[in-house]
Amino acid sequence: MSSTTYECDFLVIGSGIAGLTFALKVAQEGTVHIITKKAKAESNTNYAQGGIAAVWDPEDSFEQHIQDTLAAGAGLCHPDAVELIVRNGPERVNELMKWGVKFSTTPNGRLDLGREGGHRRNRIIHATDLTGREVERALLNSVKENKNIRIFENHMAVELITEHHLQNKQTRPKQQPIHCWGAYVLDVEADQVKTFLSRTVLLATGGCGHVYLHTTNPSIATGDGVAMAYRAGAWVGNLEFMQFHPTTLFYPGANSFLISEAVRGFGGILRNSEGEAFMANYHPMKDLASRDIVARAIDAELKRSGADCVYLDVTHLDPNEVKSHFPHIYEKCLELGLDITAQPIPVVPAAHYMCGGVVTNLRARTSICGLYAAGEVAFTGVHGANRLASNSLLEALVFGNIAAKDAKNYRRNVDVPRNQIPSWSTEGTFNAEEWVLVAHDRGEIQTLMWDYVGIVRSNLRLQRAERRVRLVAEEIEDFYKRTKITEGLLELRNLSCVAQLMIAASRFRRESRGLHYNTDYPEPDDRYWKHDTFIHRDLGIQIALPAKIVWDDE
Questions:
Q1: What tens digit of pLDDT does each residue of 181-237 get?
Q2: Is 470 a catalytic residue?
Q3: Domains present along the chain, CATH in parentheses
Q4: Residues 322-367: tens digit of each pLDDT
Q5: What gap in Å lies between CA 3 and CA 5, rounded to an integer?
Q6: Exactly one of 199, 291, 411, 457 is catalytic; which is it?
Q7: pTM, full prediction
Q8: Please, which residues have CB within 8 angstroms of residue 223's CB and are 6 or more apart in sequence?
């Protein structure tokens, strides 16, 4: 082994809420390495404004939270997975508070419970409008105090290490599951690919919002985990269901900035360019309808009027209450010269959350032995065809904890074939200077996905997207094989892979359901399409009924 090989008991790829929860739990029994693309606090978790959905109010119940989740999921939620996260919610929230998370409280000291679209009860536990940042802060402080955990910042995973990389490959029966023993990782600052070996690996790489031109996600969200897992031979699923957040700030020259759904839960009203409160025309729950309905309603209003945006109006609410509940949103808008207590907020939809991902079972295991997934990168069956607001942090907490329990047992019974795993080879590659091509290809993919695989789709749009993205992806892959890798090239390769998978899943589903709306099939079809869409590198695309996912090793 080379001097740039690291070995641990548990390898975590990603530093959001799922990865940090897992790390803190497994560190009780072994060494943990966390690799993260940027600074350790840069994650989708850190940008989550709304909160964590959990049953806390005596007038609420597990059954109501379960039913709200199933209703939002449009028939594709896995009931056992939904029940699992809902019933574990209060315990996981209590654990966060023990780790030092300070949630917002009422004057009498109780947790201040908010409400968001799709929820029939107040159950959103939050830290003003910066819940993710507060959770990330507390978890990172706990990680910092743990001597068994080491974080590698500015490190980006290149590929997962499986049997395909062994120097002495043996013939393996096709039905025998493959194993993951770590990852090749690019040290961005040192410009060197290192080898990280581990008995168990957790993918916690977050989402893929930057497949699209407009997104609420941080720059790290380039679908790395889904792409790596797919290339390694894991099943991925339901990638046609990208959630577009209905309300991101529309302001010339400003980056996409999320206006939390909690603003509508607090009483905010969506108005079109004529000042009409239009959501009553689209759904009985009006402004509190689920995100897919609200996003399509806004899209329809924009196409009808030709306007650039709609408006989220809170000017009728108490100004001091607005500032108190949404201080971050208020200050951010004020920096741009927009006082939200006196002016309506211009908003448009943007890509926000991937409901599909790397397929896992109820133990957070993927179809590759030793490889776990949790958080937005994973497809657990919880979200179905549309995620209920604030269930994502809950899911990440619960499955991060479940993965830790299972991984602690798994790692005791496996050895890493250290002497058979080669170092990364750069033989035959060269240093390229044509990085303008990389930037151009990234923009081209994002524009194609936004125009053709967005909120509203059609057969023709998807066919065009498939042809054009495939051509770009082939050029990228050829460039990747001949060129010394960089972070930008790795992200571009992953984006092109995930874009193709999303298009394939979207073309396969010939109906409209939840977040997937195709004008050629405008209605849901429970007779033939009430199923998940699974894709495998070698086995292609298949359907699977929403049910418990069981791997051969159980």
A1: 999 999 999 999 999 999 999 999 999 999 998 898 888 899 999 999 999 999 999
A2: no
A3: 5-241+355-420 (3.50.50.60), 247-350 (3.90.700.10), 435-535 (1.20.58.100)
A4: 999 898 899 999 999 999 999 999 999 999 999 999 999 999 999 9
A5: 6
A6: 291
A7: 0.89
A8: 207, 208, 210, 211, 354, 494, 495, 497, 498
